[in-house]
Design a protein that fits this description.
The complex is a heterodimer of chains A (733) and B (61). With 733 residues, chain A is an alpha+beta fold. Chain A has 25 helices and 28 strands. Classes of the chains: A alpha+beta (733), B mainly alpha (61).
């Protein structure tokens, strides 16, 4: 049977005979890769555009409609040494990209207006102390109004809209004082200009908008970038299914194109992408990603298989079941929704600060006006002073304080192999004081490894590795990997469910089940030394050997667990696996508290129990069974090998084999939270200095502008310090 | 001071030209990949070069 690959689901028709596809590419990190890929793909006939986006690690391709198959691009990229996969932009990603472009446009307009209004304001400030004619001053003020009013109307949209939404629903957010300040300042400036006054506040109002837009844009951009990378990772996991399009014809299709009732083929070594029921075939499946259980379960006609399970030994035909109520996925999704709802009540640091901020500012401004009137000043003078208070307490330092730190910290985390999924993940992560690890695939590596490599003669190992290349079995893959085998043996035959055999120098060699290799005696003799390990036998003529294969702990797991404990963080294991397996891992890592054989609901119950005790729980897990607890925990993290659902739920995702990114992320987050708080205090300190001046009525627009930009710049510079953390949180590379 | 009649509009016109340029470059997708753009400027393109004109391809969908 020949497998065709059908990616038409992802191809967009641009019209005029042109087609477009986006590919996510793994491992594009430098300018060299960019040129290599673009040249390699442009060389294909009919390709009209091949353009790499280095920020998002994607390639956009356009070609003339005709015989060119998109699968060809993926083959070509594989030849060049890059793994690629077509992907579809999630709708959330598209909206965020649009929003980010809009913010940038507003920022451009506001910055233009600020520069030009400043150009006019500086002559006025210096003219006020020298010899400027009142007519000239008015002319400059009017010009400023002509620039600032339309610019503020356009660039202020993000704030006006958000403030309006908040007011309509009866709330007050930080955008409300911003809008009141800007509108009052502009309105008062127009009135002042009419009356030929010395001061106008156009410059302050528009500069306020510019600084705030910088913060807003940085915040938005951080989220957009991580979402783009997360989208790539999801695509690169290549969730495809091999679907029967005829009785004997199969085609590889994206999971999105599989419907309930379809028949799919599941070969050994493949991960199942759908929920379904086996209709034909006999095999063993590895459900560790779903239940955490590392022992294989037998599958035959009538067995239900779930998305995420790995087929081990035989070929299966699976009838796709509807994702109806009662399936595992539906059950997990329900738990997930509940958990996510509970968490959405968390309030971000910025929101908490602004909730305090808005009433204080408004009260101060109102009291200033009232105070001046009571002291006998005219209403006009009192209101002007009130506006000065509103402007000088402008929340631009506040608006920049948190986004700038977040952007810098997320960039630093990105470099140490951690991707952020949620905007407020950093704040929640910094508060975590109890880490719960899942075992399978989190503390351990997702792949299998050979444990007793040292006991086996090197030549035997090498030969077994070569033979193993001819099998799809994941255990065989582990042997091939450990032997570093490259060239498969000629004439190797795989016997489904048994093993592989070949003839070398006239002697038959076999790799597979102990019964297949005639090594039962050896198994009985050695006994099961290690309860978790799977055993695979190798025979060459009469000499027999046993390979012991198991999931190894992540290389630096013990060090990282010790590091967490040193920081005063409690560590615990909750695993769906058997007691013996969990106990061994806990002992090796020095973790006192652990539970085995727990269900998703048990995990949530444990997290809730800790939460009630006031503990901020961080959950680290990879399986589908972990998804609800990932959502229930205060903050959560998944390895990149995790099930799709878990990865989408986790606040952070980490890359690579070591566990170091977990510790690095905590260190960066703690540092970032410290800097955010420091920045807020800087903003408060600035206000404490500036507000009395404003209340006393001595603030000119010049002082207001200088104080405002000064405070913003200090806050931004302070945020840059989030790039470095001390000590062991080294890069994962 | 009559010179201001010329200089002020001139300064504003220059500023406006800058703004229009910025909006145009934003619209044509030149801020989509800042990292790549930085490298493209110094890339060796002696051989058959990739198209140099930035395309707004992804936004056309």
């Amino acid at each position: 049977m020949h497998v065709t690959r059908d990616f038409s689901h992802y191809v967009k028709d641009l019209g005029a005979g042109l087609k477009h596809i986006d590919l996510a590419v793994e491992g594009v990190s430098c300018a060299g890769c960019m040129a290599k890929i673009e040249r390699g793909l442009s060389a294909l006939p009919d390709v009209t555009l091949a353009r790499v986006n280095l920020t998002d690690r994607r390639v956009a391709l356009e070609w003339k409609q005709g015989t060119l198959d998109p699968a060809k691009f993926i083959d070509r990229l594989a030849e060049l040494g890059y793994k690629a996969y077509p992907f579809e932009k999630a709708s959330a990603e598209a909206t965020e990209a649009e929003e980010s472009r809009f913010l940038l446009r507003c920022l451009g307009v506001a910055a233009f207006a600020t520069m030009n209004v400043m150009m006019l304001s500086i002559p006025v400030w210096s003219g006020n102390v020298s010899d400027m004619l009142p007519e000239q001053r008015d002319f400059f003020h009017w010009l400023s109004a002509v620039i600032a009013l339309p610019a503020a109307a356009y660039a202020g949209q993000p704030f006006f809209r958000s403030a309006w939404r908040a007011l309509k629903s009866g709330n007050v957010n930080m955008d409300v004082p911003i809008c009141i300040g800007v509108i009052l300042a502009l309105g008062m400036s127009v009135v002042e200009t009419f009356h030929h006054a010395e001061h106008a506040y156009f410059d302050a109002a528009i500069m306020l908008l510019t600084f705030l837009l910088v913060g807003r844009y940085l915040d938005q951009n951080m989220r957009r970038r991580t979402r783009a990378v997360a989208g790539n990772l999801a695509a690169l996991k290549a969730e495809t299914a091999t679907k029967f399009i005829g009785p004997d014809e199969i085609s590889e299709v994206p999971v999105a194109a599989v419907r309930a009732g379809d028949l799919v083929l599941l070969r050994p070594g493949e991960r199942c992408a759908v929920d379904g029921v086996v209709v034909e075939g006999r095999s063993e499946i590895d459900q560790s990603l779903i239940t955490g259980e590392t022992l294989y379960v037998p599958a035959e006609q009538g067995t239900a298989v779930y998305a995420g399970s790995l087929n081990i030994s035989g070929t299966l035909r699976v009838r796709v079941s509807a994702a109806a109520e009662g399936t595992l996925l539906a059950e997990i999704t329900r738990l997930l929704d509940n958990a996510l709802q509970a968490r959405s009540r968390y309030m971000r640091l910025a929101d908490r600060a602004s909730r305090l901020y808005a009433p204080v500012v408004h009260a101060t401004a109102a009291l200033t006006v009232l105070g001046w009137v009571l002291m006998g000043a005219s209403w006009h003078d009192a209101i002007v002073t009130g506006i000065a208070v509103l402007i000088i307490t402008c929340p631009c330092a506040l608006g920049l304080a948190i986004p700038t730190v977040q952007t810098v910290a997320s960039g630093a985390m990105f470099k140490s192999g951690v991707l952020l999924n949620a905007g407020d993940a950093i704040e929640r992560l910094a508060e975590a004081d109890h880490v719960i690890f899942d075992k399978t695939g989190t503390l351990t590596l997702p792949e299998l490894e050979v444990v007793n490599a040292a006991d086996i003669p090197a030549d035997v190992f090498a030969l077994a590795g070569q033979l193993a290349l001819s099998s799809h079995h994941p255990v065989a893959a582990a042997v091939a990997q450990a032997a570093n085998a490259r060239s498969p043996l000629m004439g190797a035959v795989e016997e489904p469910g048994q093993g592989v055999r070949a003839v070398v120098d006239g002697v038959e060699i076999r790799l597979g089940r102990p019964t297949f290799c005639g090594a039962e005696a050896l198994v009985a003799q050695t006994g099961s030394v290690d309860p978790e390990a799977s055993v695979v036998a190798f025979s060459r003529g009469d000499s027999k050997y046993l390979f012991s294969v198991r999931q190894g702990l992540r290389p630096d797991a013990a060090k990282i667990v010790a590091g967490l404990q040193r920081r005063g963080i409690k560590v615990e294991i909750l695993s769906g696996d058997r007691e013996a397996a969990v106990a061994a891992a806990a002992k090796a890592l020095g973790i006192g508290e652990w539970r085995a054989g727990v269900t998703p609901a048990d995990k949530i119950a444990r997290i809730e129990e800790l939460k009630r005790a006031g503990v901020k729980v961080m959950m680290v897990g990879d399986g589908m069974n972990d998804a609800p607890s990932l959502a229930a925990a205060h903050v959560s993290m998944s390895p990149i090998s995790a099930a799709h659902l878990s990865q989408a739920t986790a606040d952070l995702v980490f890359l690579g084999r070591p566990l170091a990114p977990v510790l690095a992320a905590i260190d960066y987050a703690r540092k970032a939270l410290h800097l955010m708080r420091q920045n807020l205090w800087l903003a408060v300190g600035y206000n404490a200095l500036a507000v009395p001046l404003a209340i006393s009525g001595v603030v000119t627009p010049l002082i207001a502008a200088a104080a405002m930009s000064g405070s913003s710049i200090i806050v931004m510079l302070n945020a840059l310090r989030a790039r470095k953390v001390a000590g062991e949180a080294a890069s994962w590379k | 001071m009559e010179v201001m009649i010329i200089l002020v509009p001139l300064a504003l016109a220059l500023g406006l030209a800058g703004l229009v340029g910025f909006l145009w470059s934003l619209k044509s997708g030149q801020y989509e990949d800042l990292e790549g753009a930085a490298w493209r400027a110094i890339a060796d393109d002696d051989e058959q070069a990739p198209p140099a004109q930035p395309e707004a391809a992804p936004s056309r969908s």
